[in-house]
Design brief:
Blueprint: E1 15-21, H1 33-56, E2 67-69, H2 72-81, H3 84-96, E3 99-101, H4 114-129, E4 137-142, H5 148-156, E5 161-166, E6 180-185, E7 191-197, H6 202-206, H7 230-250, E8 257-262, H8 275-287, E9 291-295, H9 298-305, E10 315-317, H10 332-355, H11 360-374, H12 390-420, E11 433-437, E12 444-450, E13 464-468, E14 473-475, E15 477-479, E16 485-491, E17 496-503, E18 544-545, E19 549-551, E20 555-560, E21 564-570, E22 575-576, E23 589-593, H13 602-610, E24 622-625, E25 627-636, E26 640-648, E27 652-662, E28 667-676, E29 683-688, E30 698-703, E31 706-708, E32 722-724, E33 728-733, E34 738-743, E35 749-751, E36 775-780, E37 793-804, H14 809-821, E38 824-827
Length: 830
Amino acid sequence: MSIPTKGDHKPVRPWTIYVIHHSHTDIGYTERQERIEQYHIDFIRQALSIVEAARSGDKPEWKPFRWTCETFWAVDQFLKVASPLEKEAFQQAVIRGDIELSGTYLNMTELPDLDLLLRNHSKAQQYAKSFGHHIDSAMTADINGYSWGYATSLLENDIQHLFSCIHTHHGMYPLGRKQTPFWWEAPNGDKLLVWNGEHYMFGNELGFCPNALGKYIIKDELQHTLSEPEDRHNEVATLRINRYLWNLEQEQYPYSFIPIMVSGLGTDNASPNAEIAEWITQWNEQFGDQITIKLATLSEFFATLKQEDLSSLPVHRGDWPDWWSDGVASTALHTGIYRDAQRTLRKAKRLVQQVELTNTADIDAASEALTMYAEHTWGYHSSVYEPWHPQVQMLEVRKQAYAAEASKRAYRLLDQALVARHGALLSPNRPLRYEVINTEPGAATLQVTLPLDGWETTILKEDFELIDESTGDTLPYQISHKHTIVTELTLLPNEARILHINVLSQQGMKSSRNSMVTACNIKPVSCEGVDDIWEPSSSTNPIMVDSCSMESETMRIEWKINEGITAWIDKRLSTDLLDTNRKHAPFTPVYEVTPVQDEHNPSQVCSARSRMGRNRKGVNVQRDAGRLTRVQVLDNGPLYATVEFEFEVKGLSYYALTLKMFANQPRVEVSVRLHKESVWLPENVYLALPFSMGTEAELYVEKAGCLVRPWVDQLPGSCLDYTCIQEGLFWHTAEGDETLILSMPDTPLLQLGTLDHSHRKLHTQQSGKDTPSTYAWILTNYWETNFKATLGGFYEFRYAIDRLHYMTPEQTVGALHASTGQFTVHRIKS
């Protein structure tokens, strides 16, 4: 190997480099998903062949080889097809330490709830225990963060170490530096030892793998190709390794060792490569007295780290928001289906336990499909540059199919549980009896719709009453403009009620609804039957609606044409719940597009995206906020009133906002329906959520297994701009335990920072005067590689606003889940 150039930087102290050889798992970025599965099964077989050849003496030069299975998903697929001999050889290789299991299942977004995280993180450990082994370490690659509950899930599965390989493309590592350890304190106070590492293929840039010499993170003067002649490769490697270690010394790096990840080829989803072991042996023969390079496993590295005095390591408590969770908004329709499937699966599992059903097949299949959809790869690598490419189309359909499969399996499980609870399937003369169940962990008062078959809607013209069989009481109800029956119930957790519709006219009682009327002289309906003249609300209804406001006993909402909603008043406290510093009215659409000179040029639509960095928009972004143009009343009755608002906004050919105000409680359910035009340019669509409980209130979001206060409970240096949440957010003030809940069942991304293009701030860089603004980030296609290129299509997203009193933040989570989960309603037998 060549000596470094005279006068170039070299480290002073002796060093050991621990090289962790793995294959980064991207389910679909480089190939079809099923082809990737085939690859990773074969990678394990290749690794086994290498270690067996080394042990047998056929290839003694491969003896240093070690292979780390980055994800247990790959092992899972291997075990499904491996022969008994292969399974035994694999277990022995793991026991010896030639092959290592990582405790992670896949590299995930923040979509999974805690149930799914716990399930997936248990898989590797359960397998290891089956042959007397224990996993203490896990690694991730590519992704830029994790929900705080991720730490909880690892620790509960007895995994003590996490190695994170951040990819800073449109993202960033926390803490202000890479290659540093810290203790990550979980919500319950337990601690996970984390190594905040370098890019997952940095070893390729340092030259550890022949014929895979990369240049991505390193920005030096050296120009080369992946496959250079041996002398040239070694010259580059020697120069870079010495420079890198010298630089660590200049940065006051405290240890004499450093971990580096390496790939067997210059690509994601790469095979193991025994030539890495050969190259490292040659290096050590020449330079090992000063710089020793050793192939190692995660456990070996962490064991070395724990020999140091770690008592002074910083302890960081809080969330680690993932910069890369924004991909979920590029396929917003299917993300909504995913989230509904996740809630339905939780609901179905609770009901299955109650009726003592055994159906692990659908639970496992639904969980696996949820996992595959939530995996961090959001499409083929050229999805924006060539969106018509067959690979782009195939991978997109397969990705979306995971959400559909999860939904199908979860609902099938729910259907089976409901039939076991005496559910009535379709048959003539089905009784008009319904069971309403609260499967969520919190008590709630919600309105429920009692489903009718199409031929049964004739009863709506009859006189009938709605009976609660548990009390014998007659319940109030309202017939909606969609010809359904809506009532309201308060249920405790796991409580169920039986309701039935008693049609009075069928019992020989007089029906006032069937009386003949020749004409109506006071209702402004034309001869065509079109009812389009504004009518003030009837004084008999508890909600008053006029041309600029709607008002119940507890809430008042006001609006103005062109401006949108101008006030959202809690009448009990005489307080406007809208932020006085808001830039946009609540639920107003905000559309952004970054133009290019030639919008039909693939190179330009991609390069404009790649220049955005962490802004998610260009410096020349064009922004347009919706303008309220039309308001109409859809419903008004004893239980609720519904008002529809239509907006005009660029980029959307249709945008309608519906507010459903409850008469008997401070709750408003919101529906947003829109048609997004198809555009190839980078775009974003936000919904303004400018709610507030005053300067003393704290903002909380629910994430997997925990509550987080954004901009407070976070790792230093982590993302401030947005976060991926579970069921919603709320503002809480300690005085009186006052809470304002905002449920977000369909759209998980919450935008918190300014929408403006600017230098981004990281956590701890914000001033004390800065407070998070709140927007739902519902659509985006800004990423230049694997996002869906166009957002065009029809969408509906739901939200709900609730005012609660005398409830702690922890208690609020149950109410939030009940708000999004809703009560389960089904027809039952007599």
